[in-house]
Amino acid sequence: MGGRVIGLVLVSHSAALAAGLAELVAQMAPEVPVVPAGGDVEGGLGTSADRVADALAAADRGAGVVVLYDLGSARMAAELALEFVEPELGERTRLVDASFVEGAVAAGAAAAGGQSLGEVAAAARQSGAAEPAAGAEPGDAAQLGAGAGPIGAAGPGAGSVGAGSGGPPEQPAAGSDGLVPAADAVTARVVLTDPAGLHARPAAAVVRALAGLDATVTVAAGAVEASAASLSALLRLGASAGTEVRVAGSGPDAALAVPRVVAALSAAGAEDAVPVVAANRSGGVGAAPGRRSGPLRRPGAAGIEPPAEPFAGAAAERGRLAAALRQAGEQLVGGGDITEAHRVLLADPELTGAADELIGTGVPAATAWWRVVRRTAEELAASGDAVIAGRAVDVVDVGQRVLGALLGRPVRPEVPAGAVLLADDLAPSLVPELVEAGVVGFVLRAGGVRGHAAVLARAAGVPMVVAAGDALDAVPDGTPVLVDGGTGEVLVSPDEAASAPVAPARTVPRTARVRRADGGDLRLSANVGSVADARAAVAAGAAGVGLVRTELAFTGRSALPGEDEQVEWLSAVLAACPDGPVVVRTVDLGGDKPVPGLRLDQVRHGFLGERGLRLCLARPALFRTHLRAVLRAAVSRPIELMFPFVTEPAELAAARSALASAAESLRADATPFAEPAGVGIMVEIPTAALRPEPFLPDVDFVSVGSNDLVQYLTAADRTVPEVAGVYRSGERLVPGLVAGLVAAAGPAGVPVAVCGDLAGDPECAALLRTAGVAELSMAAPLLAGVRAALAD
Amino acid sequence: MADRLSATDLTAVFADFQRAVERDRDLLTELDTAVGDGDHGTNLDRGMRAAVEALAAIPQDTPGGVFNLVGRRLVSTVGGASGALYGTAFLRAARAAGAAEALDAATCTAVLRDATTGIAERGKCATGDKTMYDVWMAASTAAAAAAGDGLPALLAAASTAAGAAEQEMVPWQARRGRASYLGERSKDHRDPGAVSSRLLFGCFAAWADA
């Protein structure tokens, strides 16, 4: 980059618009090459790839070019230009989805400040994300099609743990000067598995995943980047199945946000792993046992129904519909599926004709429009093809938008008592509320058996089926269905007699400890990865902390943290932890956790590679800094120390010697520190679980990490929805393995804890209590469900 | 025996394709009116005219140059999806052909593969979506299988596979583009892009046969 300035190219359908904007930017950033590429070849309204290509060459000073564009087809022109410019120039070109004017001004300022290509692109992006398409906030159900409505706040995707929302940032947010912190502070890559690509539903899940988090996240496909907070921007990416998209986040919660976005993008594929079992029977995965029936309800579809209104005359009603179509059309730019659906609805004479015809027979515009939309959507959904059924969602989405414009009001999801709720995924916090409101069953298109929503549904005794995919999208709202949360089946139009009553949910006193059958104490603790988690643990009445994840000290920033930074971070977390024993796990990097500053390879440092303790032992300097920081932070309160991902006793010995030498060096520096009160290992590799004996003389405790243990037992990646069923089959082995561990460790005086997701599963918790564990440590929100399950 | 395709040969193939599109322009437009926005025939006709004129004005001495010029002209003169998709296909083909004086069976296989990939990336489509990509994919796969039998056999196999694919797709329901919103109405329609792609592969086979 060598201090050379980044150039800007402004692609607009209007030559005058591009030229005027270039003039505006040039006035503020005279030394930045700003080249307009407006209008088509003849200079009329339109775009031209040739013009963009010429502009790219003119704007490039060798450091790269940021391209901003006004409408989706302008992006297409820019993409085509990249097909024939010099490959090197193409590689240092970034197409940025941002507000055209604000983005250009922000990018100009950043370029003038000598910032890098990534920083200039990020400055453009964050100048104010492109407006959400529906004229509503992302997350408003008006954005989402039938049943695609997010219900409430962000639900952690399957596999993510801890709802770390709220709470002040644990670290000063970079970029307090208004400029963007280093781009790509936390990054991940994910290959889209949904056959329909990044369509409305997964895009909505991505937007939802960010709710309540203080992070700026982008999703990039090829050279194009979009704000993950903007549904329309994500749809404009038009990323298809098999595309590898890059997720990058910055800000205090980036380390939480990026995995959630990845989970949301990954969960989409789960919808297609589910066959329709029979014409009247759909399959999912059972997540909370029980059989209940009720009318199927989609909160999104229930959002707007045309009201009974007087007919104002054919001309007036047609005028209203035309105006609403126009209004909804103005809110939509770009080339996403929703836009495509909208163009079709707008232009397909058969649809507008049908609505017109209905209006001609005295039906008000809203009712006429909605009938036509529903009919179209049902026809698409009935095709039996997941991709085409996805089109139905788009059509309903657009239809809802137009309906909203017609009626001039937003959408409010509501679920009647006695209903079976069909949704994409569910915020865990909403499960109890919905149960209280009378929902008798849940069917989630995505979701996971390990998701907190499922755990809470189990605790409440309400059946839930997850990973049901598009199977029920063709079933009209209000159709009676029977949910069997044990088998994962959903029967459409079932015989009412098949339903079974359910025990009412119980309220449970908040205890932090429960008795084991053998008379011992079972501690109910929380897993903590941030100050916010620690506060949540206090609020939930945790007896202690069975797992402090130190990764956030690494992943929530743009570079590897120094010793002092780690001390500061860990001290703050420890200070916020509840009373009781606290177990700090040394940093567990690799696997699915990306780390800026460490060039980790997805395979070499992946789930079967050099991760966890292996990575630390391979990088002694990193490990030493980390251990010194942990020992120094332990001055503030006593801790126990745990090494993750231990396969062999030799690794434990090496880790212990690294710990001793870190302590020795602190002593030599006369730096205050405290030895851990105990040292243990995390049992998450089958070797250690099946043969714990060699480790026992050298540990004060062991803690079972069930998430990874099950993954390695079943050879099923826990982040891949397609193998969720296989993964789950392995979970049944865990209580038996833990019982074996307890049998081996008990005589040696070594207590056994469980700190994986299974600890927070009410059913499994009961089995683990029987197995004789000393501690169950889980995400704070799950404590209530486990308490309920263990209450005598 | 035409076992290598020179720039002159390729220019002749594109001239033949231009004539085929002109001849079937109304058919293509009619097919597109049924499932799309009804401009495929007119657009492709205009684009190929411009491409053939450019090839006459600026003769190319490598197949890669021919592909590049055709792709550039299509991108420049055709709005809508067909210009972007065909343009991308030929620009990727140009890159795969590189500076080779003529295309042999091996290079042709690579050219076809990269062009096909380009269509998938630009159109965000997959096989089974009932788009031109299905035809290109069939042709590309058949070409790769026949690469050992020499260029004429390769082009004949590609053309046969393209024709079969275009026919096979007719009863399908579209999964991409505007046709995908027509639901059942997209069944039993020929996809205009698939038909024009079939014409293109037919022109290559005709050259090999000559």
TrEMBL record, chain B:
Pfam families: Dak2. PROSITE patterns: DHAL (PS51480). InterPro entries: DhaK_L_YcgS, DhaL_dom, DhaL_dom_sf, Dihydroxyacetone_Kinase. It comes from the Bacteria. Residues 8-206 form the DhaL domain. GO terms for molecular function: glycerone kinase activity. SMART domains: Dak2. GO terms for cellular component: cytosol. The keyword Kinase applies. Keywords: Kinase, Transferase. GO terms for biological process: glycerol catabolic process. This is Dihydroxyacetone kinase subunit L. The lineage of its organism: Bacteria, Bacillati, Actinomycetota, Actinomycetes, Micromonosporales.
